[in-house]
Give the backbone structure.
Amino acid sequence: MRVAIAGAGLAGLACAKYLTDAGHTPIVLESRDVLGGLVAAWKDEDGDWYETGLHAFFGAYPNMLQLMKELGIDDRLQWKQHTLIFNQPEKPGVLSRFDVPDIPSPFNVIMAILRNNDMLTWEQKIRFAIGLLPAIVRGQKYVEAMDQYSLIEWLRRQGIDERVSSDVFIAASKALTFINPDEVSATIILTALNRFLQERYGSKIAFLDGSPTERLCQPIVDHIEERGGSVQLKKPLKQILLNDDGTVRGFLIRGLDGAPDEVITADAYVSAMPVDVMKVLLPDAWRSNPFFQKLDGLEGVPVINLHLWFDRKLTDVDQLLFSRSPLLSVYADMSVTCKEYADPDRSMLELVLAPAKDWIDRPDEEIIAATMKELEKLFPQHFGTDNPAQLRKYKVVKTPRSVYTASPGRQAYRPEQVTPIANFFLAGSYTLQRYLGSMEGAVLSGKLAAQAICERQSLLGDQATKDLQMAAS
Ligand SMILES: Cc1cc2nc3c(=O)[nH]c(=O)nc-3n(C[C@H](O)[C@H](O)[C@H](O)COP(=O)(O)OP(=O)(O)OC[C@H]3O[C@@H](n4cnc5c(N)ncnc54)[C@H](O)[C@@H]3O)c2cc1C
């Protein structure tokens, strides 16, 4: 079966990978000249990488870990010490750690919380634990039901201290969704917490050993192409062409650089494009369908990824850090955390600026100036001194619409991979799956779309269907 897939982000590539494994022939059509979508990366004029996002992998990413294992590239994940590290705004330059001991879950995470006395008092810890009980006892059903509340509303309902929310949850909310706790659905943070509490290594963090385009996306492409599929760059989907019965007749691809438009036909079609693009390209004939109307409830959130190269080493911390800065979210010294970006003498900080709605339209120089001010608080020993660290160069990557905005009530708008159109499917981290807007969510959505295509076309042998179902479970 030939399957045309628009979008070579992780969802589109994972979908194509699992289709080739099931014996089908995917053709992935990507609008840009780079693989990876939100994990795309480029080399600058000096050969240094810069990325769309600072990406952390978690132990609680079974589908991503399995995909990398299947591709024989799981050794590219550089696992860090099992700890979560936060800056302390009231003590510039001092870090607070939640070290997770190597004992069974949930005791490891509970122990990590109990042992941290910088950020939570005993009373706060006890209130926090009691507040979390319903999520632990009643599980994912309860967690899903909490989508009606913002995280702040939920914390108040549970009687959890405001300070816990400002200390721990602003950082978590900004890191996971690029928005603040008063805007984020409680479901998001509770889902992540539940995974971390249920899996021994769920909150353990890894960094890829190089750029995601080369070290993660390219091996998926190689796997697809070795099995007869193809991945084509600079092939933007311009229009979804329909038959009289509303099913898809073809993908009209815009011809670039003077080339004519072309029509790609297939047995099945997948949109693995961002939800904002899918909404624009939705055929008029489908607009009145309640399934597709749900897409109007989803919208990508702005975020900015910053890269700052310095003339010296600022830190030797080999981990993701939660800045707890009003401007910034997480950051890492990639010269320490990532093998391919390693530099023994000079730091390259990669920092996520979020929430970014007030910054996305501002000039890069203004964004960097504001970031440098924040760095004075994160690294007081290197800035505001007689001999401050010098910024050698920087790159600012703005994404006006990234993952879907995870505000309260959004779960109901997230569509399944199977659509009412017999030969049309959706993939993307915004589609309904249990891992939210993440790399893991993108991979799982692609796998679920591949599985749905195989099932709907009933072209798979029993064993192959079972294998794919097992893989997606
Ligand atoms: C700053 C930042 C930090 C992040 N940090 C993390 C993290 O630490 N951990 C984590 O798990 N996740 C993180 N994420 C989220 C993660 O990157 C995404 O959830 C995931 O990569 C989304 O993959 P996707 O395939 O669903 O969508 P996308 O990556 O958006 O892929 C969609 C693809 O469709 C293409 N496309 C668009 N229009 C067309 C068209 N007309 N025709 C053909 N193709 C088209 C796009 O170019 C793109 O390649 C981060 C994201 C950002 C931006």
Residues 98-201 form one domain. The chain has three domains: 2-40+211-299+410-468, 98-201, 303-399.
